[in-house]
Amino acid sequence: MTGMTIIVKTVAEWIKGFIIFYGVYIVLLGHLSPGGGFAGGVIIACSFIMMELAFGKDQAAKELSKHGSHLLDEYGALAILFLGLLGYFLPKLPFFSNVLMQKFSFIPFHILSAGSIPLINLAIGLKVSTGLYSVYIYLSHYDPRMQEDE
Hints:
The protein is mainly α.
């Protein structure tokens, strides 16, 4: 049996959803309060790391595998690139500008008041959470004895 005790596993399973929900909350409200994509991404990554510490790497790989983490990391990078290029290709807007804010009028201090900034925060949150989880996987699963002699 891998992982920790049944108490740790039960508590980890109970609070996993709350931690992910709080991380998404920090990502989505980053333009109105302290937080944003990086801070929320770190919180979300911590929930996946907690699950791996509690249940072991085989059980954690069923929720988010190494390949799935890399794939989501690449999607986050592509989303950031797409939003940046959108600002570049629209006329009279500087690179990485707030594209949606320029095109539409929003009510200040509301959830949808920041134009494309929440979309960029979502992309950064995805990139940071999966990137940090990938770094954790590589640092914790690396075994130099498993390398083949060349």
